[in-house]
Amino acid sequence: MIKKTILSKISNGIFLYGIVFILFLAWSRYITKNLSTSLFISFIIATISVTLYILIEYKQLLKSSQKNNSQKTYNNFKEHFLYSPNKDIIDLLSKLYNLKIKDKISNTHIISTENKEIFFIFDTPIIDNEKIIQVLKNRETNNIQIYCIETNFQNNFENINIEFVTLESIINKILTENFVVQNLTKLQNSKVTKDIIFKNIFNKTRSKNYFWLGILLIITSTFSPYTIYYNVVGTLLLIFSIYSKFNKKYN
Asked: Which residues does 198 contact at the CB level (< 8 Å), separation at least 6?
């Protein structure tokens, strides 16, 4: 895995060097009108750029190698919990904590065989959670347990003695006991958002297209009377190519 990552970084370094070299060659030749000077400037700037890239990537590689895989697993579970149907989560929690139902008051409110009053709290609907808050604040019993998927919910009960089972503790229990999780699947958001549009524009797969189109425009600028316009558009496309290749937000 590490060898594959290193080879990928080398490939990215060569790619970056080529783009920076061609980009500065086109502009410095346009400004200086001297090919040898342009080649020298492009070589120096491309070398400095790749050197900085190598140093930055080396530091990031060291950091990533020190991270524990369990953190990634934790984040995956958290995302699944937040987007999975409530019923699937309740089924999982019942098995994970061996909850045996004595009486079912609602889908998110049960009485266990140990006479504990158990609530399952989720992100939505908010109005249901507000009703539960009012109910719990008026209870005198302390025999209440809340499985809280909605992370901010327990802030409403700072001065009330209620047993909270937080999302963090649920996930840690799953990881510690190697509990097999089924039916938790992330729901896809079909709504077109700004992030989806940018992900489509700046996805890594677009990098090659931006690269070749940018190179074509810069080469064509040599023979065109509109050199400055071709160079500007070609430069933008090469910048798009670099960003699409290296950005992590949309890949």
From this structure: 249, 250
